Amino acid sequence: MDFPFYPSNDFGPLMKGMVIGGVGILHVFLAQFAIGGGILLCVFQWLAMTGRSKLAREFVDGYFRWVVLISFVLGALTGVSIWLTTIQISPRTIGLMVQEFHWLWATEWTFFCLEVASGYAFYRYGKVLPDRTRLGLRMSYSIASWMSLFWINGILSWQLTPAGWLEHRTVWSGFFNPSFWPSLLFRTITALAEAGLFACLIINLATNWTREQKQTMLHRAFYFLAPMALMPLVGAWYFAVVPDDSRRWVMGESVAMTMFMTLGVGASMLIGAYAVVMLVNRRNFINAMTSLVLIVLAVGATAGGEFVREGMRKPYTVRNVLYSNSITEADAAEMRCNGGAARDPYPLKNEASIPNEQLRLGAKVYRMQCSICHTEEGANGLLGLVRTWTPSQVRLNIAQLQRTKPFMPPFAGTAAELEALVQWLAWREAGNPTDWEVSAEPEVLKTIQGHLDEVGTVSGIALMQQNEAAARIRHQDERNQKGSR
Amino acid sequence: MFPFEFEPATIFYLFLYGATLVLHVLPMNYVLAGSTYLAGIALWELARGPSLAQRPLVELLRDWMPFALGVTITAAVAPLLFLQVLYQRPFYTANLLLFHRWMAILPVLIVAFYLLYLQKSHGWHKFAPWVRACVSTGILGCFAFVAWSWTENHLLSTRPLEVWKQVYASSDWFYHDPELMPRLAVWYVGAFPVLAAAMLWQLWWGGQFGTTTAVTIGNLAQPDHSPLAPTLRSLCILAFVGLAGSVVAGLGYFLFLDEPVRARLISSRAWPYLGVASVGLLGQAWLWRYVWKSGCVCGGTIASLAGAIVMAVGAATGLREMRRTATVDLAAYLEQHTAATKIGGIGVFLVFAVVCTGGITAVVLAVRRGLAAGNSPK
Ligand code: HEM
Prior knowledge:
The structure holds 2 protein chains of 2 kinds. By secondary structure, chain A is mostly helical.
């Protein structure tokens, strides 16, 4: 077997997931602003052209400057950043995504090109172009930017709910997956709301408008938050189609995930409440400071949402296909026999400071299998997590990792590799002494092997499902027995 | 002939990769050489005071650089995609090995982008000369860094596992490769002829030569008889120096290559590329000489220049791939290439490629029409 070993990097106290999450949030937020902003500008351009609003004309050019300066520059580059960061974090995942969806990605690219062309044409010549052309450019820009969302949304939602693709392996069964439509709708609503909030900020910054004029425009901008009323519905749809286990983690089983979920929902609700206040009473006003606070809340909501979306996939990056640590279920089974980390050709960066071969192997096991979700001593630090456990507890819990927490993948390696990891953890905990005895008790290895064999390499999620099914049958049997008695 | 020693699936993606890479290289050349030009003038003005003769080109570049950078980045996405289908493992490995250093190109590009907007701002000429010099050389520094990083990454991706292991263990921020500087020089010097032609086209298309479709202002070596002469002269010089420099840099790089690679690049399999590249270079030289002698610019000159450039850059892209496949065993990834060809979606891509190209054409035409109507809103 040709397992793709890559040189793995260490982000220090930061979990790798946090790094990709951070870049992701920034990009999603900016891209949504660009998409919603495009649509908002179409509407305002139309308001101006049909004589419905004189102020709209002044507004569009000012607003568009921001869309360009933010989305062209930061949007485009954070997009490339996500790509390159994903390569840093999980080359195998992005590799699989590129492999399966390269034509759709290429399609998205054609829309990027159109977006840049129409956006720049407006930016440069908008002021001197006739209204019809202006509207045409706006529409072309909005359609192109929304289409880029359309394409990427299919690829990202596939990661969590590849359902039909697992069976048919066709690009469309993967693309139009169960969570495609709800997440597309959700993101579109978010994009509109974000655009409305930015509009409020920019309207407030206008120096030549009276308060009344600003008020009129603010109310028009707030219409873009109205679709948020659909959020609970679309959210419910989304949660109805994601896997059971993912939903349960978000709804309370995992503290961190539930926190992010609460952050997302809470921030959205505050924004929604403000929107209601603005929309029901035309006399209400919102100043620059409040607009800014609402934008910050929107960043919070995006952050919560993105973390939930990323975290919900655990232990997979592509559900049922690839674990977060870039090992497939088949790899895991194979590595139980032939070893995994022992074959990793890349040396350790601090090889010389590690006293024996076993500890070096342990460090490699950690690097390969755990470092994607854990750090040594920082966020989700492994040393801290096992500090109070006895060695046999550590052995058992790691050997049956997917049972310890179903959002961890099964251990992918031999008993000797596992013992090496246990020794390395103990050695690190002891403060990296210069001498460390090799642990070579055959009894220990036998015990570990027993633990490993007990659960095998099925995923924790499959285990849970098996347990639940078994419980249901037991329950049924008991009822039947009661009935027959 | 390269790449026909490979299987059809590999050739298919090589072709797509090469074609889209050319789309990246052309605007990238504009950005790289353009920022050098602006930095050069800014430094000159710092030392010698305003240089009015260069103003038309400076203004043109100042105005268009942000857009050119946007196009460079946007166009780069497609080759980035096909590169990952072709050379997934070596490319990712090089990315990972360079780590922070590699990721730094992104913040650097963001900084460069905003500096370009600053350089484009109305008040630019009111800034003190030293401020302008700092900004313009800063921009050049950013692009030079990015170009260097891509070259470094590329070379690292062509090296064997042994080198990768060393680089990983060393934790060095930089990867030193004997080919690095000579290779970068080829990219850098080769950018100038593209810049010169692009600016010539822009001036012509933008109506700087008047409303006629062709201008003839006579031999540029003669004393000035037209306000356009100094600008055209600068472009010719830029192109001549760039063309001659490219040949020298290309030969220089050749000497730094390992023997087997060298043999491959002059083998009969490379001849078609060497031939096309020569025609492209000589064609450009001939056309610029014609511009110099006659001071004549028309659509035909520009179209021919564009053709010659595409030949030269296209052939260089082919040779570049021959260099890479000399040390990367591309055939080893055949399975992946074949699997990729079986994946659906190409129809959708082709349809939208046509639709969006049509859309972009429509945008350009609509803007032209709108501008011609001179119909400005109140
Ligand atoms: C102004 C900014 C940029 C400059 C000056 C630049 C320069 C270069 C250079 C010099 C090369 C050739 C490397 C070599 O063959 O040695 C190259 C290749 C490439 N560039 Fe860019 N680049 C820029 C931005 C980008 C961006 C933002 C992307 C990604 C979206 C990108 C994608 C690529 C790709 C995919 C290749 C081919 C690499 C390979 O085949 O190994 N470039 N670029």
